[in-house]
Design goal:
The protein has 219 residues and is of the alpha/beta class. It has 7 helices and 10 strands. 35% of the residues are buried. The mean pLDDT is 94.
């Protein structure tokens, strides 16, 4: 599903380059649940941003399904992201002036889907995530765990084949974090490929493979 060959990312500094990622070569199969771990500054979130096509300033080769990402112009990478990728951030990134239901509708609005169909998909997702009673609330009216649940629902509502999660339980207490990780397990069992960045050994145990980074290198 994913093939990376010699991915590197660096920033210019006086007298040379400062590398964030070094010669990352990696394959991920469909249906895997992969965890990326390592100390702060190891390049974990940067690698996730490359995988999610949120960062285009890198060198090397990246293939997602049959698409050669490294050869695509920005507009086509954005379209590829919308088609295949769901992204869950530590900070939720919900739109404060939209209700729960309206936040869930955003990824669907990028697609050629009739409004009535979008409304049905949102209603089904609200039911699946146990949030029907909160559909008209705004993010500020929800707890941290509830906001992250909405963020996960928004990330998967368009049924992406790849779900990327950057410290998805970092701002949650343990019970809320466990709820999110069990949800990831169910999504993975249903066929979604998941790649998470975490410092938590407990969260890593939910996956089936751990990738360690240190100073931008795979170790």
């Amino acid at each position: 599903m994913i093939s990376l060959r010699n991915i590197e990312k660096s920033y210019p500094i006086a007298g040379g380059q400062s590398f964030v990622l070094r010669r990352i070569t990696l394959d991920i199969k469909p249906g895997e649940f992969v965890t990326i771990m390592g100390p702060s500054g190891a390049g974990k979130s940067t690698l996730l941003a490359v995988l999610g096509m949120l960062d285009g300033a890198w060198t090397g080769e990246y293939q997602l399904h049959e698409h050669l990402v490294h050869k695509l112009e920005t507009r086509k990478r954005v379209a590829l992201h919308k088609q295949y990728v769901g992204f869950v951030f530590q900070q939720y990134h919900l739109l404060d002036d939209l209700t729960v239901a309206e936040n869930l509708d955003i990824p669907l609005s990028y697609r050629d889907i009739k409004k009535s169909e979008r409304q049905a998909i949102v209603a089904d997702t609200l039911d699946r995530f146990g949030m029907v009673a909160k559909k008209d609330l705004y993010p500020s009216q929800l707890s941290g765990g509830q906001q992250q649940l909405v963020a996960v629902a928004r990330a998967v509502i368009h049924k992406p084949s790849l779900l990327l999660a950057d410290e998805p339980t970092g701002n949650l207490h343990s019970a809320q974090g466990k709820e999110i990780m069990e949800l990831f397990t169910r999504l993975n069992a249903a066929g979604t490929t998941i790649i998470q960045v975490t410092h938590s050994e407990a969260n890593a145990a939910y996956g089936n493979r751990v990738i360690n980074l240190k100073d931008g290198w795979l170790v």
